[in-house]
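Figure 2 data, in text form.
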Amino acid sequence: MGINFILPLIAGIVMTVILGSQVAPSLVENMKIAKVENRTIANQNLIKDAITKYIKLEGKAPTGMEDLKTFFLMQEQHNNNLFDGDYTYKLFKLPEPDGRYNGTLIIKTTINDESASKYFSNSFKFPNKPICTKSGSNYDCETFYQLDMEVFDIFAKLKEKEENAKLLDFYKNINARFSFTNVQVTRDDTIDPEGIYKDFKVNIIYGAPDGLLEKVFPNTYRIPSYSSSNTMRWEPWWIPIPTLTAPKKTTPNRNEFFVNEVKKRIKIYIEKELGI
């Protein structure tokens, strides 16, 4: 076996090693890209669509992934990104007192591979570019979606339904939940010799719906102030009930007079709002 035979053989082995060292990483990266596109991204898109379908079918937001599985909108295998991570989501709400969903959805997932997280965040298949942040050896990725107007309208109706339910509950239990812990009146003898009561304040406890008094008495000089989460203090001048003659010091049971008048007007307002 001559040198002319051995040298080409050695050269062939060297070239094979060199090409193998270049092809192997490329093959691994291509496999990662395929996993990201065919499973990581596909599963997230499926979950996003499942959430949208659930809202449109049920007229409310799902409480978790189990709701989506119950309606066969996704399966357990879809909650796996193939990089040691699952998916979580959150539907954003506007700040209180509005508190309704605003149609914005965020889906989060964790990927344990740097290059896979880059493929994921830069994939052309995403209309909304994911943001991936390094966390230890992992990458936490989140994607924002603005859901369509049909979903937004459903949330608006859901909020209206919740508010009406609160009004109805308050209406049915007004004596128990609308309690005046303090009634204070200020007399002005200069206006009327019999001592007309020109202003008063009351404390209202047990969860009066937000903004109820401002809506019932829109002409008040002052709006209710809150001294605690359960107590509303209302200190307008007496004039905000313009069709009512203010009680005088000679009026029998004048504190009850205030209480009953305010309750009556609140009930009239709720009846009109709810059509009852």
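Caption note: The chain has two domains: 3-155, 173-274.
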